[in-house]
Amino acid sequence: MTYPWEGIYPKIFIIALIVSTLLTPFIRKLAIYAGAMDKPSGVKIHKHPTPRLGGVAIFFGFLFSILAMGEVTPDQKTVLIGATMAFIVGILDDTRSVSAVVKLIVLFIITAFLAINGVILSLVPWPWVNFILTLFWIVGVTSAFNAMDNMDGLAAGLTFFASLAYAYVAVQNGQWGWGALAFALMGSSLGFLFFNFPPAKIFMGDSGSFFLGYCLAAMSVIGAWSTNPFKAIVVPIFILGLPIFDLIFVVVKRHHSRVTRTIREVVTFSGKDHFSHRLLKLGMSQKQAVVFTYFVALALSLGAISMRYVQRIEAILLCIQYFVITMLIIILMEYVDRRDKKPIEF
After folding, report:
1. CA separation for the pair 24, 7 (Å, rounded)
2. What is the pLDDT of residues 259-269, one digit of tens each?
3. DSSP run (H or E) holding 38
4. Which residue, 25, 206, 280, 315, could crosslink 93 as a Cys pair with Cβ 3.0–4.6 Å?
């Protein structure tokens, strides 16, 4: 069986873009009518109640664009089923509130489903180790994107750039099914971003951040990044590097500051101490902070794509470059704390 997607990538992108763009205003009105509003609080930076559930538009834009093409590959089917499960959990959290522990357990279940159906990392010769690595990767990336949804336009924009990098690699490798998912994610996230870029008219909610994080994590597993094992590991980490680093940094920082002491507190705690929040404390506006973050993520993605074509020495230099960028971010984040002579607000 063949899947003739090579010539219809623009159609997939346009369908996802149109569905997401047209559906978002309707979902916004529905959220207002249903009272699904994100109200200001101590750990949030918006000043006025804002409708959420924007993830519904992103999800259906993505889903319709894939299903409209007719045939679906086994890997696509597995990703779509898992994406639906992640989306449902997010919807329940947006409308009824689901504890962070329950959401984490569901993520483990979804990851197990993926692994059983063949979407699993193949880094070592021991299946059980690959399963554990897949578990931590998908749960970690999903959690990272959920945490990055802390500012207007941030998660949707980062998803667009990451899926753009995915699409480029997919086209280069001739992985047409994987590329279709990437183009669908690009279109659906961009359509929503028209209404979510600062000042946001609607938030995506957990239905969006869970769905986007899961898709990017699962898609990175099925992608053929490189025939070189080292590059195959490093390239997707670079592309998703900023959300991953941000999550690791704040978790370590909170533990070091004794803000969190137990695993449960690590899972459930949230605060205004992420990279984007620190940019605000430097005096940037939300729009400036979001665009600055876009450029950092884009720089990391370009380095990741370049790594696929270089030799060993150049690959090492790109890794050093990634390390330098990471250190600059750490210095910047630490500077904000010390300049204010008080811990970042949690």
Report:
1. 28
2. 888 877 777 77
3. strand 37-38
4. 206
